[in-house]
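Q: What residues go here?
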């Protein structure tokens, strides 16, 4: 398994109040964040994870690199939703936190949720991507909520920073799938050797945990994920029954398948955000 120190950056701008991802963008993001934490820590006992937010007035570190889920959880549930996102400065602060990791053997990674429009210009994003690549920092971007606005910028950002397929961009539109489910089957976690598509039991049923987490390690999170999955399954069954009772419509005989820059700069950024 890969040895990594990971900083997770969450978006707490005003856009996160939207309810297009149940129950809200922010809550869906928190569940996915907790899922990523458990995945990273359980994949290797030496892995550490930190948490920061980059909305409101600027980036703020909620938890330094740790293996203690309680620290992550306590910080994430005391966040106020306000202001706008600060994508570039959020990544810079996350990179600075990774630089000060105790175990220098751990590879550096940032996982950032983007649920609001990116205000920075293409030139600023290109400069940031080149700097992160130079410092051997991999970045996984989860694009949701405002994916139509951000996709082009994030595509270019990912192409620049990607080094031997170490960085990923996933776009998750609103839909029946939960945000954490889309992440679980994406390269962000699948490269760790996880497979959410096959269960541990017979018959190939869907297992909400698989080898990613031990339900006994965190019963509260395990229960929340299981209830979420059961609610989603019940909703899909209700929709299927409604479709069965709808009157049949004439359809054409043939259908077309449409599926188809240096450390001083970093320290300066950190000082500015700490004074806010």
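A:
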């Amino acid at each position: 398994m890969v040895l990594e120190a990971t900083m997770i950056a969450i978006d707490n701008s005003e856009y996160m109040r939207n309810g297009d991802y149940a129950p809200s963008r922010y809550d869906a993001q928190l569940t996915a964040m907790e899922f990523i934490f458990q995945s990273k820590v359980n994949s290797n006992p030496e892995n550490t994870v930190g948490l920061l937010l980059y909305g409101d007035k600027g980036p703020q570190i909620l938890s330094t690199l740790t293996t203690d889920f309680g620290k992550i959880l306590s910080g994430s549930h005391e966040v106020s939703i306000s202001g706008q996102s600060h994508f570039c400065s959020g990544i810079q602060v996350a990179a600075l936190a990774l630089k000060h990791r105790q175990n220098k053997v751990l590879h550096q990674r940032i996982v950032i949720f983007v649920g609001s429009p990116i205000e920075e210009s293409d030139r600023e994003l290109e400069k940031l991507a080149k700097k992160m690549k130079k410092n051997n920092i991999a970045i996984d971007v989860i694009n949701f909520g405002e994916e139509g606005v951000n996709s082009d910028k994030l595509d270019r950002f990912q192409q620049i920073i990607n080094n031997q397929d170490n960085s990923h961009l996933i776009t998750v539109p609103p839909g029946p799938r939960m945000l954490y489910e889309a992440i679980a089957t994406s390269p962000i976690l699948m490269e760790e050797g996880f497979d959410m598509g096959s269960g541990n039991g017979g018959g190939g049923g869907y297992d909400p945990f698989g080898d990613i987490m031990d339900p006994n390690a965190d019963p509260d999170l395990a229960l929340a994920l299981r209830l979420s999955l059961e609610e989603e399954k019940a909703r899909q069954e209700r929709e299927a029954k409604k479709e069965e009772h709808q009157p049949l419509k004439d359809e054409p005989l043939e259908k077309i398948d449409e599926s188809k820059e240096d450390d001083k700069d970093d320290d300066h950024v950190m000082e500015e955000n700490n004074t806010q």
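A: Context that may help when evaluating the design: The chain has one domain: 4-245. Residues 192-213, 248-260 have pLDDT under 50 and may be disordered.
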